[in-house]
Each structure stands twice: as C-alpha cells, then as structure tokens.
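Interim report, section 4.2 (structural modelling).
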Amino acid sequence: MRRNPVLTVLHRLAIGLYIAFALFPLYWLLKVSVTPNDLLYSEGVRMWPSRTSFEHYAFVIANSEFPRFFLNSFIVSGSTAVIVTLVAAVAGYALSRFAFRGKYWITALMLLTQMFPLVMLIAPMFKILSPLGLTNSLTGLIVVYTAFNVPFATFLMQSFFDGIPRDLEEAAMIDGATRFVAFRQIILPLTLPGIAATLGFVFTAAWSELLFALMLISGNAAATFPVGLLSFVSKFSVDFGQMMAAGILALIPAALFFLLIQRYLVQGLTAGAVKG
Amino acid sequence: MAAIDITSARKSYGSVDVLHGVDLAIGDGEFVVLVGPSGCGKSTLLRMIAGLEEITSGEIAIGGRRVNDLPPKDRDIAMVFQSYALYPHMTVAENMSYSLKLRRTPKERITAAITVAAAKLGLDQLTERRPKALSGGQRQRVAMGRAIVRNPKAFLFDEPLSNLDARLREQMRVEIKKLHKDLGATSIYVTHDQIEAMTLADRIVAMNGGVVQQVGSPLDLYDRPANLFVAGFIGSPAMNMIPAIYRLVDGTGVAAVAGGHHLPLAGPFSIPDGTAVVIGVRPEHVTVSPPGSGGLRTAVDLVEPTGFGSILHLGPFGQPVKAFTLDRALGRNGAAVDVTFDPAQLHVFTEADGRRMDPAA
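Predicted structure of the assembly:
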C-alpha cells in the first residue's frame, strides 16, 4: 500500500521540527563558542556571527585548568560506568534468574533509594566521607556515584536479562556448561546491547553530575568538568565564550563514547534464538 | 545409551505438589512418550531427569547411577527444547559443536561429527548460517543436530514439534522416528499431542494432575484405557462417554442408558447391580447402517466430513454420540440411520472413581 505523500511530508516535517527543537541549545552553544568576545554583545541576536574565531577554545585548552578537569571527569565517569555495569550485570542476572529469600525486600530497598531527593543526602554523605578522607578525592566521587547508580542500572540490566529466554542457558548447561560458563559464553554476548546502554547511561550521568561534585570537592585538583564550568562565573561577569567552548569540548568524550557503543545498542541481536 | 529409572519421584513448589510420586523404568534404547494436558507435570518430570529442576524426594538414576545431585552437565543427556533454544550469536556449526567444544573434543573429531550430523539432517548447506536466517523447520533440525552430535546417554524432547505447522510437524515426526531407529538411543519425549504420542512411542506414559494414569504400548492405551482420563485423552475424535446404570440381566451385564434402552455388555462384571457406570465407545465402534437394518433408530444431527470418512453426530437415547463411518452415503444432515454397539467394544468405567472394569472371567 502506498502512503499518501502529504502524510509523508507532514511526518518528516514533524520529525524535523522535533530534531531542530532538541538540537537548538547545542547549536547555540556552538555558535557562542565561536563568536569573538567583541562581537558577543555588539551584534545583537544573530543565527551566526559575522566573524568566527577559535580563540575561546585556545584559551580554554592553553590557559585554564580544563585539561585537568577533563581528565578528572574522565577517570570518575569511566570508573563509575565500569564498576556499576559489572555490579549491575551480576545483580541483574541474579534478580532475573534466581528465586531467593529476601528478593522482594532487596528490590523494594533498591527502589526506595531512588526516591530521596539528593539534596537531603549531601550533609550525611559528607559526614560519612569526611573522616574516611574521601572528600576532595576522585575515589570518593566514584564511590558516591557508584552507590547512586547501581540500583537503577541493576533494574535496567535485569530487564535485559528477562528478555533472554531461560531455555538458552538451560540448553548450554545440558550441553555441558556450568551456570557461570553459560552466563559468560551464551547470555553475556546476547546482553551486549544492554551492557552498552547501561555503560552509556551511567557514564553520562556521572559526566554531568554537579551537585555532589560541587559539595564534596573544594580545590581545583580534584574538580570535575561541571564544577570547572562554574569557574567561568565570577562575581562580576560570566565569560560566556570560554564557558561555551569548554562545554563543546566536554561533549566530545560523551559523543565519542556513544559512537563507540552504538553498534551494541542496536536491537534484534537475540532474533532467531527461539521461534519468533 | 542407558536405562533410566525413576523411583517415587516427587516435586513440590512450596506447599504445592506438582508430581505425586512417579515410578517409571525406561529400558535402554526405548522411546517413551510422556503425554497429558497442560500442567499435568510431564515437562516437570522431564526437567527433573535433565537436572533443570530439583527432585523434592525420590530418586532418578541414569545408567544405574543416581543423578539426583548431579548438575545437568554431568548427566550426559541431550535435550531438544520447544523453543529450539539455539544460540543466536553462533552459526549452525557452532551451535552443534558447542557441547563438543566444552568437552574439549579434538577439532578433527568435531568437524567429522558436525559433517555427519549435518548430512543426516539435511543441513550441509546451512552450517555457516545464523539461526535467524533459518526457517522454523531448519531451526528444529539444528536443535536435533545439537543433540545427536555428542552421542549422549539419553535424548530428552520437550514438545519439540509444537511450534511447527501441521505438515512440517508430520514430516519431523517421521524423521524423529527414523532417527530413533538409526541411533537406538533411549528417548523421552514430552507432548500434549496424543497423535504424536501414539505414532512415536514404544511406550506411552499418560499423566494427569501429577499422577501417572497408565503406562503401556500405544495400542494398549487405545484398546484398554485404564480409566476415564486415558479413555478420553487418547483417540481423536474422542471416545463417547455415556452415563449408564449397570444391571445384571439373565446372568449377563447390560448398561441401562437414558430412554429405557439396554446395551448388552461383554459379560457379567464384578460390580453390584445398580452401580452407576460410564460406558465408553470409540466413534469407529459405533456401527451406523441405513434405516431398517436393525438397531436404534436415530437422526444425523451434524456431519463432519474428513475426506477419509465422516464423523456423524447422532443422538440415540437422547445422548450426543459421535460415530465414524467410511460410508459417505450415510453422511447426510437429518438422515435417519440405525445404530448398533458391539458389546466387545464397550468399555465400562465406574462412575465413582473412573476405573476401568473388565468382565468377570
């Protein structure tokens, strides 16, 4: 059946509008980041400046502490993503496949942790971490981020495992595998999209987290990039150009990360396992 | 190959009993079919043999060795799942060789085994494909191939044909039978399809509600069902069940049915006069003849032509009774026919517990 061409056009138009709406802030970020300071306030609101320059980028890379912030952010987000995904994969598998005492309460407890506004927890968290020497340290941030992301990531992984038929690991166990070998050789490869999604989710969550980073980190040495961005806001002025340039630079690792994992995000890897 | 012995095997989930003590001895090389309606415990029993379900109590032995506490991988059995359970990220050849690789079989031996199995199942051209590029029937064959490459002690089949369409199912049924003839492997096959059970089995185990109802050859179950459940479950179209009262008249038994009719039975039975019974008669044993040939006059309410013959829905003595006839001329809606019953073909079951009664010698 052929679609009505008018409908097709409307359809595309709606998608286009949505994309424009979603991407406009990013576009504005890019536009401001390449606008030289002297044009920033003098040209009024324009879609593109009459002259562009990369001076903000050069300044951010050469004269600010941003390379350090990046590195910190990368260490924190990367470690958090890997640790959380490992824990969530194992925990999610257990919740998906095993019946054990207290399963209901563990699930309820994990859900409960997701219900608190983070602000409430800052003071107690600081109180706990401070005597351990984990304030002002990347390790402390990793611990906190891991704790906060594990529950949701576990639910996410559980739903991916739930989508893989039990028959597959049972077949593997009859074929001669232990449960762990069946998990590693049969189930895990099929959960790669889920693992990729979890990695991506946790990485971006940690990458953009500001509240805890701001409260737990005081010096520049252990600051992450969102905290660093604030350093462009001084008492009397905001250096928008440099701030935007730093923002664009901060997008690069996240974008690269998703580029890396997008291949695993595609659906349908399990097609053909069972009749479908 | 090995014999499998099941001794008072029970299974409960919490306080719910799923299997109430099953005893079954399966001979080396035998093809046994577990058949019954959904939820009768047949799949649970199979999974207990496979090691996928724990045995609550009792014992299961494969080849004389108690396996209750052995994990599936150490039981040396192969299983074909209803869903096929092919590994989607592996090719056909990898799917079939997975078990051999886990056992560290030398590469040449694996290749040889795959080649033989693929040829046997007509998969030679498909070994490099992934499961998703195969049709349902081909996936089914791969699942079978995965089982046969490793020469296990026993094959377990969990409703392997349920996902196939009717024609393919018939074809695979024959192939499974042939395969069993070739390999002579001990096989346990679970199905809810009584035709599959009848055609494949050396012995059928009919189950209901977690209890074995009858064990015997297919024709045993068909000709001498042990109780009402087996009588009703085996056979298609299903056996007619006619409520009646047992009477002893002139030293022989008769069944008094509705409308004051008496059906003579094959002799006196060792039950008291006046016992409520159920008379079972298979549709092909209800003899239908043109009106005037003698017997109960009745009208044909409905005709179901099957091509081979016709199933006639009749109503002698106000009871619905199905008859199977090869005479197409009789199969006209509203036509009058005469019905007779051969006493030797009437099965008598007590109404109280549904048990089969045989004429007293």
